[in-house]
Amino acid sequence: MTLDLGTAGGARLEGQGEPWTLVFIRELRQPPAVVWEALTDPAELDQWAPFSAARNLNEPGATTLTMVDGDEKLDTPAEIRVVEPPAVLEYSWGADLLRWELEAAGSGTRLTLRHTLVEPSGHASVATGWHVCVVVLQHLLDGEPHGVVRGMAAKEHGFDELREEYAKLLMQPS
Fold first, then answer.
1. Tell me, what's the pLDDT at 172?
2. Which of the residues 26, 35, 45, 74 has the least number of beta carbons within 10 Å of its own beta carbon?
3. Do 22 and 117 meet the contact criterion of CB atoms below 8 Å apart?
4. Dist CA 149 CA 70 (whole Å)
5. pLDDT in tens, 45-68
6. CATH of residue 149
7. Residue 42: how many CA atoms within 13 Å on its side-chain side?
8. What is the number of domains present in the chain?
């Protein structure tokens, strides 16, 4: 089943030079505590995130996040730095830094991801990847799991077209 990805939006780049930080914002229908579990529980992460986690991300300290693309797997070191349930989760992912901020918004959650990129040239692909992941996450939270979409499998759901939209949206002035 192909996912309806919608259109690019809710993303911007911050910074004056390298590294850039991608700021990605989405409104989710569930309260922060429910979203928090999806961000920290390895069983839930494995259903929507671009990686699997070696342990629960609810505790500070070292862990491994494994990128999965079909049969290929790449272990990446991670360090859980900030754990303030259900509001802030921050960790390194290789050289990158991810900061998830959850804020109550009515009966739902405003999710803000700040992904500081070591290689800013891939910002449109990174934004598109998170867009796909959060669409899958919303299905999971709604009780209608789609199944994880990782790596090259995202092309079957319109990744390339959506990446073009993000490239235009995130274009930096010269």
1. 53
2. 74
3. yes
4. 10
5. 999 999 999 999 999 999 999 998
6. 3.30.530.20
7. 10
8. 1
